[in-house]
Amino acid sequence: MLRRMGNVASTSRKAAASIALVTETWPPEINGVAMTLSRLALGLQARDWQVALVRPRQSSSHITDVHEHLLVPGLPIPGYAGLRFGLPVRTTLFHRWSLQRPDVVHIATQGPLGWAALKTAQQLALPVTTSFHTNFHRYCRHYGLSWSRRLVERYLRQFHNQASCTMTPSESVSQTLRQEGYRNVFTVGRGIDTTLFNPDCRSQELRAAWGAAQHDLVVLHVGRIAAEKNLQGVVDAFERIVTLRPSAKMLWVGDGPMLNSMRERYPQHIFVGAKRDEELSAHYASADIFLFPSLTETFGNVVLEAMASGLVVLAYRYAAAETHIRHGECGLLAPFGDVQAFNRQAASLATNPEQIAPMGRAAREALENQHWETVCEQFESLLNAAVKGDLLCLPA
After folding, report:
1. Beta pairing, strands 218-222 & 289-292
2. In angstroms, rounded to a whole number, what is the distance separating the alpha carbons of residues 377 and 117?
3. In 3-state terms, what secondary structure has residue 225?
4. Is 147 exposed, middle or buried (0-12, 13-18, 19+ CB in 10 A)?
5. 220: nearest Cα among 204, 243, 237
6. With 0-12 CB in 10 A as exposed, 13-18 as middle and 19+ as buried, what is 144?
7. Contact at 8 Å (CB) between 34 and 26?
8. DSSP symbol at 311
9. Helices 149-160 and 112-123, interaxial angle, to 10°?
10. pLDDT tens digits, one per residue of 8-44
11. Which fold has domain 8-191+371-388?
12. DSSP string for 235-273
């Protein structure tokens, strides 16, 4: 649902025809931002928009259906192998947008490339919208950069407040940003492909490969194996489960800077690396419980993927989990940051396994109408409003 929009949602679909979408991550990179932007770009094209993507060159080639790509130089992101940030190519952007003037520029990442896009759009008097996908300021303490948090917070606020609006994936993030002085913040949710992520993808052969018998619990975590994901929270909660259900298996799907160290530290756990598409959906559906103790998300697309796959999700009460999980009906929630409560909920699943299947079915049912088409409509409405100048500047 769009917040504080007045009559924006009724804006004509044809108010804008072209968008420059600026991002420093894109498939085949595996993360929620890349997946979301790909869905939105394809959704806009289906609604007759011309989409021109501006992104760093990647180490691997990838076929995409997006109309046009402007590939710019980039450098590796420290601590994130395979991901790159784009260089501030203002001259390149100025020449391109002078010759092929977009109706609106949407900036999805706030690095050097995003900064260059913002300044170039201002120079050319182009409308600009932004997305707030990642809590970079919360990452600081996980990488020995706690001293820089206030600087990062100030930069992000100044960056986004120069745009017509900032879009967030959850109302809790929108409320937080407004309290921190961000202007014109709107909530645009996330969709889920319920055909791809489906309980019917469950595979007994896959479970057997993990050493899980038919009635053994398989506990799953999907995401980057990185410090900001609170991996210790997964380990601790699983310890509570396996103490009560010794045959339970802990399955990790994902890649990241801590993968090798986690494999060495927990050889009894199963680490399968990153998966995508049908292979990923089979891993989801073949598990039983999804642990998601991250405290740094703006949304958490994996929560929706797990729910659509028929799993019981245990998460903290914020972002996607707060929006979509009804505690005790289609998943379990713990108060934000309450480790003891989180672990108690994990233990309750182990001692009451009969509640797992019914809650998993309810989780699937809760997402039956969570379509990407609706999200694309919300996104398009804000773009059109920015082009028309209909987004009133709200005071900080």
Report:
1. parallel
2. 24
3. coil
4. exposed
5. 237
6. exposed
7. yes
8. P
9. 30
10. 444 444 445 899 999 988 988 888 889 999 999 999 9
11. Rossmann fold (3.40.50)
12. HHHHHHHHHH-TT-EEEEE---TTHHHHHHH-TTSEE--
What is 277-296 written as a DSSP string? HHHHHHHHHT-SEEEE--SS
Residue of 368, 10, 333 whose CA lies nearest to 172: 333
Measured CA to CA, the distance from residue 104 to residue 62 in angstroms comes to 25
| pLDDT single digits (tens) 344-377 | 999 999 999 999 999 999 999 999 889 999 999 9
> Residue 336 carries which DSSP code?
T
Q: How many CB atoms lie within 10 A of CB 222?
A: 24
| CATH fold for domain 199-366 | Rossmann fold (3.40.50)
Strands, E assignment, 30-108: 50-56, 68-72, 74-77, 80-86, 104-107
Do the two domains 8-191+371-388 and 199-366 of this chain adopt the same fold?
yes
Q: Residue with structure tokens 């011309």?
A: 50
What is the 3-class SS of 162-196, one letter each residue?
CCCEEEECCHHHHHHHHHCCCCCEEECCCCCCCCC
Query: What is the C-alpha end-to-end distance of the chain, expressed in Å?
Result: 22
Please, which pLDDT band fits residue 79 given cuts at 50, 70 and 90? low
Q: What angle separates helix 301-308 from helix 356-366, to the nearest 10 degrees?
A: 110
CB 25 within 8 A of CB 41: no
What would the pLDDT profile of 239-293 be if each residue is shown by its tens digit? Answer: 999 999 999 999 999 999 999 999 999 999 999 999 999 999 999 999 999 999 9
Spatial distance between the Cα atoms of 236 and 218, rounded to a whole number of angstroms: 15
From residue 311, give the alpha-carbon distance in Å to each of 111, 198, 217, 292. 35, 10, 11, 12
State both tokens at 253.
Answer: 């799907």
Axis crossing angle, helix 301-308 with helix 277-285, rounded to the nearest 10: 70
Domain residue spans in the chain?
Answer: 8-191+371-388, 199-366
Pairing between β-strand 74-77 and β-strand 80-86 as defined by DSSP bridges: antiparallel
The predicted model scores a pTM of: 0.87
Distance CA 55, CA 49 (A): 19
For the record, the structure tokens of 274 come out as 């990153």
> In Å, what is the CA distance from 45 to each residue of 48, 51, 53, 131, 196?
5, 7, 12, 19, 21
Beta bridge partners of 84: 76
